[in-house]
Each structure stands twice: as C-alpha cells, then as structure tokens.
Amino acid sequence: MARTAANGHLKPHLNQNGLKREDIKRNGYHNKRENNGPGTCVASRQHKQESFEQAPMYVAVMTYLGFGIVTLFGYFRDFLRAVGIEKCHLAQEREEQKDFVPLYQDFENFYTRNLYMRVRDNWNRPICSLPGPVFDVMERVSDDYNWTFRFTGKTLHNVINMGSYNYLGFAENNTDFMKTVAEKTSQYGVGVCSTRQEIGNLDIHEELEQLVATFLGVESSMTFGMGFATNSMNIPALVGKGCLILSDEVNHTSLILGARLSGATIRVFKHNSKSSNSLA
User: What is the pTM of this model?
Assistant: First the structure.
C-alpha cells in the first residue's frame, strides 16, 4: 500500500496492484492532462474504423447456457416463495390495494429477484472519499444473500475507480477546480429552478452554446443538461409519422427510446455497416 506524505501526496512507488502512484494525490486528484482533439477548436472530421473481436462460439454458448440455468432456478425459487417455503423480500401489493392499478409486476421484477440479487454486492458500493482515479470503499457484508447489507466498520483503500459520473473532474481535490465552482455557485446559485423559455436562461448558457458552435465549426448550437433527455425528448420534435429512421443496432437506449416515441418508421442496420443488405 502507498503511504501518505505530510503534504497529502502519495509517495511514488507501486501499490499492491502494481500501479504507479506518483501522479495521484490523496482523495483522487491526478496531475496528468490529456489533449482533447487536435487543438484547432474544430472537431476532426476523420473517423477511425472500429474493429471488434468476435466472441468464440463456445463463449456465446456457455453464456446463454448460464443465463438459462439461472433463469430456471429463478422460476423454481419463485415457486418456493409462492408456496411459502422461501421468504420474499421484495415489495408487494398490500391486500387493501388489490383493487387499484398494481404498482409491482411480478414478471417485471423477475430479473431483480433472481439474477441481479445474486451479484448485487458488486454495484452501488458506498465510498468515503472523493471519486477520483482511486477512492476508499466502505466494506459491507450480507447475511441474507444480498437482500440487505451491514457495514463492518472497515475501509478498503485505494480501490481503482472503473466508472464514475465525475466527467469533468470537479469532484477531485483540486484547489483550482474548487475555487471556480465556489465562485460560480456564489454568482449563479446551484440551480435556476425554471426552464430556459421562462426565466432559466443565463448568460453562461449562451456562452457555452457559442463555445460549442465554435468548436464544431457550425453557426450555432443548442445544449441540454442531460444526455438521455437530449436524445429521447428531441428526436420526436425532429421526426414523426411518415419519416424514416436508420438506427445502428448498438445505439444507446436514449436514441432507441426517442425513435420509438417519435412514431417514425425504424430500420435497424448492423453496427457501422454502410451496406444496404445490413438493414433489418
């Protein structure tokens, strides 16, 4: 394990995972920076051809076989719950609400009950440090097969952060970041509590859109605060019944939902394929 120096930096040597730590400070701040694009303020129009390794047949077969076995056991456990042999911990309808529209659908919760619950301890791990390249995780255990958890009081230090919503790095322990965030929060507050059509349009919104337009080399741009809503809510505003959408088979869920909500005709093609024979 790396030891912490007096100034809050980690000494440059390898930890137990064999990773260099000279560029990582305590609580996740790192010094290295990467350039985004060619630095010309105009996005590069060149696209690299993606290549994906095809999964071997035995891997695909074993994967589907594993899901099939777990699904069969799931139905068996549902039978045990139905006859009262096994206790069901999921939320259920109350007897006095049986005449109302059901809030919980047994079949829809099948995956949660029988598949996700088996590996639930791998997700939603509570942390006790800043979400930088590494962070500290609170250790927890379960006594009822991941239905509930209890903390042991121990902390797992320097766990590698493989996924985080800290896209811009504002959660890192960086004085420059924190100063900028504090200044803008004092000037604009933490939210506008209104749509931009009413009283929610600020000068920094327009400045951001002009910056994005300049970066992309276009006349103007429109920015949204949430990526999922950008696709799912705006596609129906651009196309509708009588339109045709050609959709990549591995498109994000937000694009798929927006296309379905639009009412347009959808034709799916194989990933990154330009051939007309790839249309489904």
Answer: 0.51
